[in-house]
Structure formats: C-alpha cells, structure tokens
Design a protein that fits this description.
The protein has about 210 residues and is α+β, with helices and mostly antiparallel strands. Helices cover about 35% and strands about 20% of the residues. Strands 4-5-3-2-1-6-7 form a seven-stranded antiparallel beta sheet, sandwiched between helices. The N and C termini lie far apart (about 40 Å). About 35% of the residues are buried.
C-alpha cells in the first residue's frame, strides 16, 4: 500500500520543489546548542487551517540531552537556530515560541501534543531524525510518522500516513499525551513575526510574549 501511494504521488513530487539541503557547520551547532531543564519529551506540532480544519504541516520538538526541532520540508528558519537537513538546533524557549508564532496566524493554528519520554528514548528519536536527511515538499507527515514508527516503543501505535491530521489523532491517543492549541491573529504574510524574530537578544533568553 505504501509503494502504491508513493507511486501515485510521484508526479506531484516531480512537478514541485525538491528538498533543501542545508547543513550548518559543527561550530554553529556547538555555539547555539541548548539544553533544557525540563524532563525528556517529544512534542508533535500540527498546523491546522482555521477555515477548513485541514492539516497543513507536521513537525517534532524533541527534548533530551539537547532540544531540537525536526521540521521536514518546513520554511521556518532563524540564524540562532542552525539547521542541518530539516533539523534545527539551539531551540531555547524563545526559539520554540518563535516557531509556534511563525505558524500560528489568522488562517492557521498550531496544535502541540506533548508526550514524556525516557532519556534513552529521546536519544534514539533524536538520532533517527538527524540521520533522516532533507525532506521533499509535501512529505512532512510521512517523514514524521516514519520517524516515530521506527521507534520500537511506538511502531504499532503510529500509522504510516501523508495526513498531518491522521498523525495527530493517532499521537493524541498515546498514553500520557497532553494537548494545547495555539491561536494568533497575525496577518498571513507574517511580517510582524519576522520583524520581531530579527531583533537582537542573548542566546538562552526566555523572555517573549506569546
């Protein structure tokens, strides 16, 4: 079934843009590396249309020995969150909130579903997304679901899917998951958000109004 779906969608992939290959240097990643004092966890972000209820994007925030975002085929970026093949490092509280605020606007809201992990599980998932490589456009939910399904402790509970909403529903049924929706009235061009994100600040600073 998976092969059939890939074959059916292949013409769309060929017609669209391919993956963006961005690879930050070791020095950049080390400079902005951030370790949170929160317990290990994984958060599934799902961007959902306020008009139609359809899903537009899927991403993972993984908190373990450091905190990163796996943003397959995503468009968010920040100079203080260096990127390697769709994995963003240096995810301080400010960067986490920037990421949410970038996606939440009049036409979209962000659903955050957080599940506690052990440190070993966080390490395993982090290693999996770091070796994933750049993701082609429209393949965000597929890449996230595949990464989660590769975890032996999640394999039978997460479906293979191209649908961010189907992935969100399945993830929400996992034990211990908590959920929060983030709404914002920002205009769709994100001009105000992008202006704020370019303001200088000290790395690790957590002051930011949601």
């Amino acid at each position: 079934m998976r092969l059939l779906l890939v074959c059916l969608m292949l013409p769309l992939f060929l017609a669209g843009c391919g993956a963006d290959h961005i690879y930050a240097s070791d020095a950049e990643v080390a400079k902005y590396r951030y370790v949170s004092d929160e317990p290990p966890s994984v958060t599934l972000y799902t961007v959902i249309s306020t008009n139609t209820g359809s899903g537009g994007h899927s991403a993972l925030l993984i908190n373990g020995r450091e905190r990163i975002i796996f943003d397959p085929a995503g468009t968010w970026n920040h100079p203080w969150a260096p990127e390697r093949n769709d994995v963003h490092f240096g995810i301080t509280e400010k960067m986490r909130k920037f990421y949410i605020d970038y996606h939440a606007r009049k036409s979209w809201y962000v659903r955050a579903q957080k599940m506690p992990l052990t440190m070993a599980q966080a390490d395993q998932l982090m290693a999996r997304v770091e070796r994933n490589g750049s993701v082609n456009k429209m393949m965000c939910a597929d890449s996230v679901s595949s990464a989660l399904r590769d975890m032996p402790w999640l394999h039978d509970q997460i479906p293979f899917t191209f649908s961010p909403l189907k992935l969100s529903r399945a993830f929400g049924e996992l034990p211990g998951v908590t959920e929060k929706d983030h709404y914002d009235d920002d205009p769709d061009d994100n001009s105000g958000v992008l202006m704020i994100q370019q303001q200088p600040y000290n790395h690790g600073d957590t002051q930011f109004n949601e």
